[in-house]
Design goal:
Rossmann fold, 3-stranded antiparallel sheet, alpha/beta
Length: 239
Amino acid sequence: MTYQIVGFADDAALAREVAARWLAKVGAAAREGRAHRVALAGGRITRRFLSEVARQAAESGVRMDGVDFFWGDERCVPPDDVESNYRLAFEALLGPAGVPSSRVHRILGELDPVSAAALAEQELRRVTGAQAASCPALDVVFLGMGEDAHVASLFPGTPEEIADAPAVYVPVTGPKPPPRRVSLTHGALRAASEVWVLASGVGKEAALRSSLETASRTPLGRVLRERGQSLLFTDIRLQ
C-alpha cells in the first residue's frame, strides 16, 4: 500500500489542517485558471471540516466559485432531509461561502437509486468531459470511515458486481438507515487524482487498524491497497 498517515491530537486540529491544505489547492487552481473538481463525504468530521473551510476561506479571501462540487455518496432522501449529505455541505460550506449553484452537482437523492446513479454519472462526465470508455478523474475525493471501515457507501459485504461495476456511480442497499443509497465505485476511487481519508471518532480503532494491514479486505483497506497514493488524516490512536 502507498499512503501517508497524518495524525492529530483531536478532530478540531484535523479539521483545521485539512481545510488549510485543501484551500491551498483551491487557491492554486484559481491562480492557474483551471477548475478544481472535488467529491465530498458525509458524517460528523466532514461537517467540522467544511465549517472550518468556510471560516478559513472567509478569512483568507479564497473563493469557491472555481470549484465543482460532487459527492462520493448520497442517501436517497430529499435534499432538505437531515440525512442528506448535500444538506450537510450546504449548511456548513456551500451556503456560507456563496458557492454558485452552477458549481454544485448534487446526487438527486429524491429519485430512485438507479435513476439517481445514472444521472450523477452523466453529470460528472459532462463536467469533466470524460468519454464513455474512460472513468472521470476527480481532483480530490474526500472519504470518511465508518465503524465497519466502510467508505462512501461501499460497505463490507457489498456485492462485487456492485462495488466493482464499470459504472462511476451505483445504487447500493446499505446495512444502516437510510438503506437506499448511491455511491462511487471502487473504479471511480482508483481513477481520482487524490483521495483524502478523514478517519475520526470513537469506536473506530479496530476498523482503522484492520484497514492498514497489508492484506486488508475492508472497503477502506481496498482503497488504500489499489490506489497509487492516498492521504489518511486521523485523530485515532493506532498504538
